[in-house]
Amino acid sequence: MVELIVVGEGQTEETFVRDVLAPALSANRIYASARLINTSREQRGGALSLERVRKFIGHTLRQRVDTYVTTLIDLYGLDTTFRGVTDSKGQAPAARATRIENLLHEDVIAFAQCRPERFVPHVQPHEFESLLFSDVSKLCELEPGWRQQSHPLIAARAAVDDPEWINDSPHTAPSKRLEQLHPRYRKVRHGPVAAARIGLDRIRAQCPHFRQWYDRIAALPAMHAQRPNIEYTS
After folding, report:
1. What pTM value is reported for the model?
2. Which InterPro entries does the record associate with it (predicted)?
3. Which residue, of 51, 63, 95, 138, is most buried by count of CB atoms within 10 Å of its CB?
């Protein structure tokens, strides 16, 4: 059995891990569970500075020596304290995410002083809602009346090579497009249910960066316990 901790931003990611990701990974004998970074009393996500993320992940890695840790955080709105966020602007979404992931890996491993293979960073371009554009018709089955409002969503998906290219403007990011639906799209309520209805196979087929991450964590090997990490007080 492989134990994988998925560090997320809020309740949407927590529910997605529990209801969609974990059941799929269990077929590979990978036990996945979510941990939220406490960013507010309501744990609604946001305000993820590099320092807060690095410390949270680093302390999680130090708690045990036989677990893997990964992340499920959005590229959209990512704090500029993360290395690579500013200097990668203008690059393709997956290239930006990969650069930020690589730098985050360096930062976390330097802080945690653990084996580098134990941390598998993932930054989703541009945000969780991009995954739901993998099948707009399935998404619009969730609420009466959404099907009649699906044309702008279908057009947004058709305008890009894959859903991860739907842009990160404050007005046209995936979540902002969905907020135009009536009844209102609610991230925690609708997001994980839509993802489950669409299915991981469809999402992986449509979202290359997500697919690369999923395939990597689905192939994690069992880890033999080694001597405990040295504790540092950064």
Report:
1. 0.92
2. DUF4276
3. 138
Neighbours of 36 (CB within 10 A): 17
**Taking the domain 2-126+207-218, which CATH number applies?**
3.40.50
The whole-angstrom separation of Cα 16 and Cα 196 is 8
Long-range contacts made by residues 203-207, C-beta under 8 angstroms, separation at least 24? 203/131, 203/134, 205/134, 206/133, 206/134, 206/135, 206/162, 206/163, 207/130, 207/131, 207/134, 207/162, 207/163, 207/164
pLDDT single digits (tens) 113-127: 999 999 999 999 999
Helix (H, G, I), strand (E, B) or coil at 4: strand
pLDDT digits (tens, 9 = 90+) for 154-171: 999 999 999 999 987 888
Q: Are 182 and 227 in contact (CB under 8 A)?
A: no
Give me 196's structure tokens.
């489950």
Per-residue pLDDT for 229 more than 80? Answer: no
Cβ atoms within 10 A of the Cβ of 113, count?
14
How far is the C-alpha of 187 from the C-alpha of 141, rounded, in Å? 15
The answer to whether 29 and 1 have CB atoms below 8 angstroms apart is yes
